[in-house]
Amino acid sequence: MVGYKTPVIIVGLSLTGLSLGRILGREGIKVVGLDTGGYSPGTYSKYIEKITLDDDYTSSDLVAKLINVAKLFDEKPLLFADSDCYMMMIDEYRSMLEQYYILSIPSSKTLKMLTNKYELYKLCRSLNVDVPGTFIVNNMNDFKMIEKEIRYPCIIKPVYSCLQHKLNYKAKVIESKESLIEHAIKGVRLDVPILIQEMIPGSDREYYSVAAYFTNQSVLVGVFTSRKYLQDSKSVGIGVVVEAHRNNMIEEIGIDLLTRIGYVGMAEIELKRDVRDGRFKLIEINCRPWLQIGLASKCGINFPLLAYRDLSGETVNGTCRIKVEGMWIYARPLLVDLIKNSRYKELRSFMSLKELACIKGKKIVFAIFALDDIMPFIHDVIFNITLFLKKICRLLFSKFIKHGIEN
């Protein structure tokens, strides 16, 4: 094993942070993770040393904590963010943090261009990259100007992903004008700009992604393409079964776009094939590690290690591509759908003998479960059983109270 000296700090220990910690920790790299005292899967990983943030921390609190952590090491640490919110916080204090860290995030100019989904839409249009029809609503006057152009069903999402916690959804399917007005009013009230997008027809399997890493010298050293099998029925856009899928057309679209904008670092582009015309339309770009990054690593493209080597000053040569077939599975949402008997036909199709035969021989990566790092899985099971039991207790208690009142 190579002796990697530069430590890694990960802000956020969600599923993405857990994957990052595992990938780098398995290489013998010192990994420290920062997160709040609430439940996060990466908290329990043997590959990650956790430092707890206060639940009510501010951006300045986080920066102060990061500076104190950096001072614990002789080497300047490499800093990763596992979400857009943390990434934007780091960018806000970039000049200060660069004194203590090597930052694994794109330039401020790139982030401003790509994290604003409406600006991304306009950029794609100017570069002749296919995108779904898109509108922005900052206030109800905006809505009145575009309401006649909107077709239903449509998709709505916050313009900035880091504001999705205010709306309690990443993206949502809207079936009617009345529902759209209701959500637009909520967005205006919460001061969250809303993006309204044409809903591209097609099943979950029409969603594709291409991930790439460009070094500081703008050299492409890693590229990975994948396709979704199934998405979470409750959360539009979150894949729960994803396969590594070599697709030259997707790769060409993604690499061409990133090259033309002079992108440096790690990125993942999501597209959907429009079944009406067969064209791939860009949905979004992640400027950071993404949820299924462990699948790319299992298939031979270790993006976190590529970033680590590049940012540590090592020359990285060649371009890594898919070496073996693989599949990423987030079991919990699948089990919930099975228990609730929702999406029965889709799940039955996925679990058919034909599909299971296709899975045979592929490298399987689970979102949480890993034999060499079992504690995140055990704690996740305990956490969700506890939530389920609390829900049952609340339901029984409410029925008991209602029965008592009626009597």
Short description:
With 407 residues, this protein is an alpha/beta fold.
Description:
The protein has three domains: 98 residues, NAD(P)-binding Rossmann-like Domain (Rossmann fold); 66 residues, Dna Ligase, domain 1 (2-Layer Sandwich), CATH 3.30.1490; 163 residues, ATP-grasp fold, B domain (D-amino Acid Aminotransferase, Chain A, domain 1). Strands 14-13-10-11-12-15-16 form a seven-stranded mixed sheet, with helices on both faces. A five-stranded parallel sheet has the order 3-2-1-4-5. It is an alpha/beta fold. The chain contains 16 helices and 16 strands. The termini are far apart. Helix 1 links the parallel strand 1 and strand 2.
Topology summary:
Elements: E1 8-11, H1 15-25, E2 31-36, E3 49-53, H2 59-70, E4 78-81, H3 84-92, H4 94-97, E5 102-103, H5 108-114, H6 117-126, E6 134-137, H7 140-146, E7 154-158, H8 164-167, E8 172-174, H9 177-189, E9 194-198, E10 207-214, E11 220-231, E12 239-244, H10 248-260, E13 265-273, E14 280-286, H11 293-298, H12 303-311, E15 326-329, H13 331-340, H14 344-350, H15 353-359, E16 363-366, H16 375-406
Parallel strand pairs: 1-2, 1-4, 2-3, 4-5, 15-16
Antiparallel strand pairs: 6-9, 7-8, 7-9, 10-11, 10-13, 11-12, 12-15, 13-14
